[in-house]
Amino acid sequence: MADIEDISMTTSCTNYNDKVLDDTITLETVKGAHFGVKAAAFHNHLLNKNLKYKTKYDMVKSGRIKYYYCKHSTNDVFGYLRSFHPTEITQKEKVIIDIDTQFEKSFLVIVNKFIEPLGLPPINKRLSVLSSILNF
């Protein structure tokens, strides 16, 4: 499997203190908070739940972060500081990478931005392509 750094994307996290209502007991953000803030808040929430790792990992409050889409009941996007993915915490808390969504958001969206203006049909996450794309 690819290294988490290879498949994670980069975004910014700003206005954390204004957008995050709680990252200790529960995870709560204001309505309309940027996904980068939500990803950072999820990281901080899990770090607050696993206090023994607070000396190893820093809280994420601002700046450039890496993130990926995940399957978890608390949040669907997880963020971390570059080169400091808290693997011990994500494994313990069962934060599973959502490979389908990650592929769609990091690759298909970009590819479709190029092929749709050419009049070609978009590719969906199952890599289904209408036969017309193959009939030039």
List the helices and strands and how they pair.
Elements: H1 4-7, E1 9-13, H2 16-19, E2 20-22, E3 28-29, H3 35-49, E4 63-71, E5 77-80, H4 87-92, E6 96-97, H5 99-115
Antiparallel strand pairs: 1-4, 2-3, 4-5, 4-6
Features:
136 residues; alpha+beta; Ribonuclease H-like motif; 2 domains; 4-stranded antiparallel beta sheet; 5 helices; 6 strands; 18% strand; globular
How would you describe the overall organization of this protein?
With 136 residues, this protein is of the alpha+beta class. The model has no long low-confidence stretch (mean pLDDT 91). The chain is 34% helix and 18% strand. The strands form two sheets. Strands 1, 4, 5 and 6 form a four-stranded antiparallel beta sheet that branches. Strands 2-3 form a two-stranded antiparallel ribbon. The longest helix is centred in the C-terminal third of the chain and has 17 residues, at 99-115.
